[in-house]
Amino acid sequence: MKFQRHDLKLFTGNSNPELAEKISDCLGVPLSRARITHFADGEIDVHILDSVRDSDCYIIQPTCPPVNDNLMELLIMMDALRRASSGKINLVIPYYGYARQDRKPLPRVAITAKLVANLLTKAGADRIITIDLHAAQIQGFFDIPLDHLYARPVILDYVKQQHFEDLVVVSPDVGSVERARSIAQRLNAGLVIIDKRRPHPNEAVVYHIIGDVEGKTCFILDDIVDTAGTLIAAANAIHANGARRIIVAASHGVLSRDAIEKIDKSPIEEAVFTDTIPINASKSAKIKIVSVAELLAEAIKRNHMGESISELFA
Questions:
Q1: C-beta atoms surrounding 65 within 10 Å
Q2: Would you say 250 and 220 are in contact if contact means Cβ atoms under 8 Å apart?
Q3: What pLDDT digit, counting tens, does each position of 258-285 carry?
Q4: pLDDT digits (tens, 9 = 90+) for 187-227
């Protein structure tokens, strides 16, 4: 896909420049220059080196760990572009950090997903392009247009190419049943549901497995894998119930703490993640990376040309 428009500017922060380069290659539009440095005390200094006057600017910056640094870097880049008289400021945030706090489950807690939405909007964002929000209702936290993309087609294309036998799709919790059912239909596979409880953050206990996994190839698809505690609990449970092979996938591989080590020691045969967050796949032979660069590039092109983005998932 070759695409060239003089009024389209692509920028990247420091959170995932490899993905930005891939998007740039897909579009045939070079990344514009920005110098991002730090003062001695850690404050971020941004200098936009190319003219952006009246240009349609896209900043590619997932707010992944270190989330506070990457979020602040994004806000400062937006301010620099706005003060440089840019046209529209579009944010490509493949992974939207702080999304897991999207409601008040307890008194006197923050709703950070809304707070970050307010920060991005007030800083001057005209549009957000993101992938697989932790909760769909987060779209309603924004008072500006938001394009919610799905990594599912990219992951499923990879799974289909592997030609797994006796495949069943495993919903990692009751809340993911609708998504798992849709995936099972696309893969012509059976459906299994895990009934789990989460007594503490990043901790899961499996109570029941609804469906047959004995002798099956089990495919678990989730949106985020952070410490991998939930994922390992699910994998151990279905392995104990006779699963022959266990394949897992997630849109966002946060992989905090010893998550990779846990995956290596688990009965999981393969863990597939997209590159919304940079992952060092060399740390484990089980980890496979599929790219969302073409998906994001197509969304950017369609947005810039005033074409439908929803047709990508029709």
A1: 17
A2: no
A3: 999 999 999 999 999 999 999 999 999 9
A4: 999 999 988 666 666 566 666 899 999 999 999 999 999 99
Q: What angle do CA 150, 155, 157 make, to 5 degrees?
A: 110
3-state SS of the chain?
CCCCCCCEEEEECCCCHHHHHHHHHHHCCCECCEEEEECCCCCEEEEECCCCECCEEEEECCCCCCHHHHHHHHHHHHHHHHHCCECCEEEEECCCCCCCCCCCCCCCCCCHHHHHHHHHHHCCCCEEEEECCCCHHHHHHCCCCEEEECCHHHHHHHHHHHCCCCEEEEECCHHHHHHHHHHHHHHCCEEEEEEEEEEECCEEEEEEEECCCCCCEEEEEEEEECCCHHHHHHHHHHHHCCCCEEEEEEEEECCCCCHHHHHHHCCCCEEEEECCCCCCHHHCCCEEEECCHHHHHHHHHHHHHCCCCHHHHC
Tokens 């964002």, residue? 125
Question: Is there a contact between 277 and 8 (Cβ–Cβ < 8 Å)?
Answer: no
Question: What is the per-residue pLDDT for 174?
Answer: 78
Pick from 271, 291, 312, 247: nearest CA to 94:
291
Active site residues: 196
Identify the CATH class of 152-290: alpha beta
In the chain, CATH 3.40.50.2020 sits at: 8-150+293-313, 152-290
CATH (residue range 8-150+293-313): 3.40.50.2020
Dmax over CA atoms of the chain, in Å, equals: 61
